[in-house]
Design brief:
alpha+beta, Aminopeptidase, 2 domains, nine-stranded mixed sheet, 16 strands, globular
Length: 323
C-alpha cells in the first residue's frame, strides 16, 4: 500500500542523495545537498515549503516539493498549492512512473486544506506528459537589445548592489505592476528574498565563474526606485525579475545600460527573459519573441475558481517564481 508522508530527517537526506543528476541544476551531488539544505532555511521556506515522499513500506517511490502560496485571480484572493521537483526514485515491474500518483495525492490533500488552485512548476525542464487536468500558463521568451550611447558611457543613473532593506520597496513595485492583470502571485519581501537566495546559492555553489547573479538597484534618495536581477552565464544574461516605480520602465533600461557600459570593450551579451505584458523600457527593443516552453501549469482545485484559460497578456509571472 502506497502512503504519502512529509519528509524530514533521514528520509529527506535519502531523497536528496537519490535525486537524479539532471535535477541538480548543474551542481555536483555534494553542492546540491548544500543548496537544498540552505534554501530550506530561509524565513519564507520555513513557513511555506515542505517536502513529501510517496512510500511503499520502506521503499521510496517518488518525492516532490509543496509550496503554500497566495495570489490574485480576477482580483480575488486565491490560495495556491505549488508543486515542484517531482521525481521518481523507483518504478514498478513494468517501469511505470509513480510521479502521477504522488501529484494526485498532493492535490487531494491541498484541496482538503482549502487550496483554490494548483501551480505545477517545471523549472528543471518540461516533464512529459502534462499531468492530468493541468493547463499551461502561457509566458513569452523575449530577446532584448539595449540602446547604447555612441560614446559607450554609462547613463547618469545612480546604481548599487541590492540589499535586504530594498525588499519592501521591491515588493510594492511588484504589487503596483501586477494589480491590473488577471493572474499573479502575491510576492512579499520574504518570498522575493527566498527567490534571490536560491539564485545566489546556485551561483556560489557551482563551478567557479560558471554563473553569477547581478542584483542591482537604482535609487532615489535612499529608496529603491527600480531594480533588476540577472543570472549571468558567459555572454548570456537572463532577466530573473525586475521592477520600476516609473510605469515606463526607464530606470530598468538605465540599469541595463549601466551594466553593459562597465565593460565597453567586451562583446554585447545576449539578454533574454520574461517581461510583464506592456512593460518595455524606452532604451530597450525586442529583437525576438516566442512562446516559452510549458514550464508552468495550473489546475483548479475548488469551485471558487472558474475560467482558467489564461492568455499570456493576462499573466505576470517571473522566472524567479519557478521553484
Amino acid at each position: 500500500m502506497m502512503t504519502l508522508v512529509e519528509a524530514d530527517g533521514r528520509l529527506l537526506q535519502r531523497i536528496v542523495a537519490t535525486t537524479p543528476l539532471v535535477a541538480h541544476h548543474g551542481l555536483s551531488p555534494g553542492a546540491f545537498a548544500k543548496y537544498d539544505a540552505a534554501q530550506a532555511k530561509t524565513a519564507w521556506a520555513i513557513r511555506h515549503r515542505r517536502r513529501f515522499a510517496l512510500m511503499q513500506a520502506d521503499e521510496l517511490l517518488a518525492s516532490a516539493e509543496r509550496y503554500d502560496l497566495t495570489g490574485r485571480l480576477d482580483r480575488q484572493l486565491v490560495t495556491i498549492c505549488g508543486i515542484a521537483a517531482v521525481l521518481d526514485h523507483g518504478a514498478d515491474d513494468k517501469g511505470n512512473s509513480y510521479r502521477a500518483v504522488l501529484v494526485e495525492q498532493l492535490l487531494e490533500e491541498a484541496a482538503r486544506d482549502g487550496a483554490d488552485l494548483a501551480l505545477f512548476s517545471q523549472a528543471a525542464g518540461p516533464m512529459s506528459p502534462v499531468p492530468d487536468g493541468f493547463a499551461v500558463v502561457p509566458t513569452t521568451d523575449v530577446e532584448l537589445k539595449v540602446t547604447e550611447s555612441s560614446r559607450y558611457g554609462a547613463p547618469m543613473t545612480l546604481v548599487r548592489g541590492g540589499e535586504d532593506r530594498d525588499l519592501q520597496a521591491i515588493a510594492a513595485m511588484g504589487h503596483a505592476r501586477a494589480d491590473s492583470f488577471r493572474f499573479h502571485l502575491n510576492r512579499d519581501a520574504d518570498l522575493i528574498k527566498h527567490a534571490l537566495t536560491r539564485r545566489r546559492l546556485l551561483a556560489g555553489l557551482g563551478l567557479t565563474g560558471a554563473q553569477q547573479l547581478e542584483f542591482v538597484i537604482a535609487e532615489e534618495g535612499i529608496t529603491a526606485a527600480a531594480y533588476i536581477a540577472i543570472s549571468v552565464v558567459g555572454d548570456r544574461w537572463t532577466i530573473e525579475e525586475c521592477g520600476d516605480r516609473d510605469p515606463s520602465g526607464a530606470r530598468v533600461g538605465a540599469i541595463l545600460q549601466a551594466l553593459i557600459a562597465r565593460e565597453p570593450a567586451e562583446s554585447r551579451p545576449a539578454i533574454r527573459g520574461w517581461l510583464p505584458p506592456g512593460f518595455l523600457p524606452p532604451q530597450v527593443t525586442i529583437a525576438s519573441a516566442s512562446p516559452a516552453p510549458p514550464l508552468l501549469l495550473v489546475r483548479a482545485l475548488s469551485s471558487r475558481v472558474r475560467g482558467l484559460q489564461l492568455a499570456a497578456s493576462e499573466v505576470v509571472y517571473w522566472r524567479n517564481d519557478l521553484f
